[in-house]
Amino acid sequence: MATSSTGASSASSTLRSSSSEENFQQILDERKRKKMLSNKESARRSRMRKQKHLDDLTGQVSQLMKDNNQILTSMNITTQLYLNVEAENSVLRAQMAELNTRLQSLNEIIDFINSSNGVFENHDNNFEAAYYHQNQINDDTFMSPWGSFSVNQPFVASADMIMY
Questions:
Q1: Furthest-apart CA atoms within the chain: distance in Å
Q2: pTM, 2 dp
Q3: How far apart are CA 85 and CA 89, in angstroms?
Q4: Do 114 and 146 form a contact (C-beta atoms < 8 A)?
Q5: How many Å from the N-terminal Cα to the C-terminal Cα in the chain?
Q6: Which has the closest alpha carbon to 134: 117, 156, 159?
Q7: In which element (H, E) is residue 58 found?
Q8: How far apart are the C-alpha atoms of 146 and 50, rounded to whole Å?
Q9: pLDDT, tens digit, for every residue of 66-116?
Q10: How far apart are CA 72 and CA 10, in angstroms?
């Protein structure tokens, strides 16, 4: 009987061992299943983060393209305004050169008139007679307006003189 009790105890321990192995396997399977679920959830969250990041980058690209177009439009407008101002400056420079030429001619005429006034003046030693003759206005003044007065100052151009 001793053998049979030993055989029964070994069968019982084999059963317990087999049952404990099954429990251990179930525990391992359960852990494996939980780990897989955890990994799936982690992968899903990772994909969602990547998708959100991609959406953010796409939105940023769209905004940057919009900003870039606005900057290009602004640059084009500014360039056009610059070209308009340059053209206007060229016209004004040409007008200034023309007015300077006219001014120089008028100053030369005035210098000529001032230098030739001495030819027509009375050269008496009497200062009062010369003064009276120089400042006298008579009927000949309107016939010869340049001969009756002396201009001591040159003409000066002003902005009001420029007419379009």
A1: 180
A2: 0.45
A3: 6
A4: no
A5: 138
A6: 117
A7: helix 2-120
A8: 93
A9: 999 999 999 999 999 999 999 999 999 999 999 999 999 999 999 999 888
A10: 90
